[in-house]
Amino acid sequence: MAAKRQTRAPVFAALGDETRLSLVAKLCGGRPYSISQLTQGSKLTRQAITKHLRVLESAGIVHSVRRGRESRFEFDPQPIEGIKQYLDSVSEQWDQALSRLKSFVEE
Amino acid sequence: MAAKRQTRAPVFAALGDETRLSLVAKLCGGRPYSISQLTQGSKLTRQAITKHLRVLESAGIVHSVRRGRESRFEFDPQPIEGIKQYLDSVSEQWDQALSRLKSFVEE
DNA sequence: CTAATATGCAACCCGGCGGTTGCTTAAGAT
DNA sequence: ATCTTAAGCAACCGCCGGGTTGCATATTAG
To answer: Which bases of chain C are contacted by protein, using any atom under 7 A from a CB?
Structure first.
């Protein structure tokens, strides 16, 4: 699974939009929502919401399941876990840099 | 500086680019880098790198300090800590949904 | 002083993104 | 069989983002 590297930028990009963030906020509650349901309350068109959902889907953050005439979207946690790990590694590097600096000053 | 709330989408967007991710990777090591230094090794132009740095700066992830004729960029950890917290809340919601589902199935 | 280095500024190009409108097709409801 | 609701498809639009080139300016080196 080493070939999966360098693929977290699209995940960040997918989350880099307020509309998409609110969609994620709704969907991560566990319950699936149809496109129409997700459009309710939003000032945007159904097609606009659909496009945003496709972006999230391409990033692997959600997936759709056709159910009758509606397609229900469900949350998928793996990509977000992935970027959480990445951010942890960034923080860790930073913390190590800080402690190196501190011990340097102290000596 | 309290009126900064609900502004994590720009942070995600700033990280939604491979070039910017590698800049962050370099800068989070603690050592400041000038624009020319950051351009070294990259196939991009100095101006391209500069633009990326400005994007990161607007998101609060880095800041520049003028030093003589060069401007050195340094990492700033707060915005990334912010989105880490946000992602934690998403994961938490998801986990709670899972456990609710589990206990529902079990009864 | 002069040359070289580091950056800033501005214009420009192109492609993709966010969003809309219009029409079509698929499934339920009556 | 018909009406209605959910969604897909496609074209179109304005705009911003990533990238380049060209030139101007400031600071350091010789």
So the answer is: 5-11, 17-22, 26-28
Sign, Cα dihedral of B72, B75, B76, B80:
positive
Q: Which residues of A touch B94 (CB under 8 A)?
A: 28-30, 75, 77
Q: Could you tell me which residues come within 8 angstroms of residue B8 by beta carbon, excluding any fewer than 6 positions away?
A: A21, B79, B82, B83, B86
- ∠ CA B31-B35-B41, rounded to 5°: 85
Instruction: Give the pLDDT confidence of B43-87 residue by residue, as tens digits.
Output: 999 999 999 999 999 999 999 999 999 999 999 999 999 999 999
C-alpha distance from B68 to closest chain A C-alpha (Å): 23
Contact B9, A17 (CB under 8 A): yes
Tell me: pLDDT of B3 over 80.
no
**Domains of chain A with CATH codes:** 8-106 (1.10.10.10)
Are residues B77 and A91, on separate chains, in Cβ contact within 8 Å?
yes
